Amino acid sequence: MALPPIAKATLQSALINAGSNVLAQGIKAYRAEVPFTLDTQTLYQFTTCAFILSPVTFLWLEGLEASFPGEETVPKENEKEKKGTKLNIPNTIAKILIDQILGGALNTALYIITLGMLRGQDYDVIQTQLQNDFWPIMIAGFKLWPLVSILNFTVVPADKRLLVGSLFGVLWAVYLSLLSG
């Protein structure tokens, strides 16, 4: 029995995030010139965060595609031609902008809040982290995710977008792991 797409995407994201966290821990140990010791608590927190946030992201992307379809049907010019599709440029631009501005802000805030809760931090500490970390993460994200969105929404088939996002997600998850300690 095949997993539903949201479950498959969530599992894939959690596994990639776990691997990225282990990689980030290895990078930290290498930089500090100390032997690598796996911090299982950090690994658990980071992976659990992915399990919590991935379904939200999955539903967000589905909603964007449903609201702003990326392809439009091209009418046949004669009876022998197959009906085709072409990129809907206004919808694609809208998806990229909405995803980067609203989706990025929502995802960043939820990441900071969720990780703080998983660490057992109280409301004031989480609020301070949100104030301190939100813009640096957003600005760093603007250096990577718009490119991913442009690729995904213009040249990557819809059924391959999760894979492309996950591949870039390795870089992002290492960055977040290094940032979050």
Write up what this structure looks like.
- Keywords: Membrane, Transmembrane, Transmembrane helix.
- It is found in: Membrane.
- Belongs to the peroxisomal membrane protein PXMP2/4 family.
- It is a single chain.
- This protein has one domain (5-68, 85-180).
- 75% of the residues lie in helices and 4% in strands.
- 23% of the residues are buried.
- By secondary structure, it is mostly helical.
- α1 (5-32) runs parallel beside α6 (161-180).
- Strands 1-2 form a two-stranded antiparallel ribbon.
- The chain starts with a helix and ends with a helix.
Please name the defining characteristics of this protein.
single chain, 181 residues, mainly alpha
Tell me the radius of gyration: 19 Å
Distance between the termini: 38 Å
Q: Give the amount of beta strand, in percent.
A: under 5%
- Total strands: the figure is 2
The secondary structure category is mainly alpha
Indicate the overall shape: elongated
User: How many domains, in number, for the residues?
Assistant: 1
Average predicted confidence as pLDDT: 87
Question: The biggest beta sheet, please?
Answer: 2 strands, antiparallel
Question: Given the structure, what is the number of helices?
Answer: 6
Low-confidence segments, ≥5 residues, pLDDT <50? none
Order of helices and strands: HHEEHHHH
Helix share of residues? over 70%
As laid out across the biggest beta sheet, the strand order is 1-2
Membrane topology: Multi-pass membrane protein
Family: Belongs to the peroxisomal membrane protein PXMP2/4 family.
Subcellular location: Membrane
Protein name: PXMP2/4 family protein 3
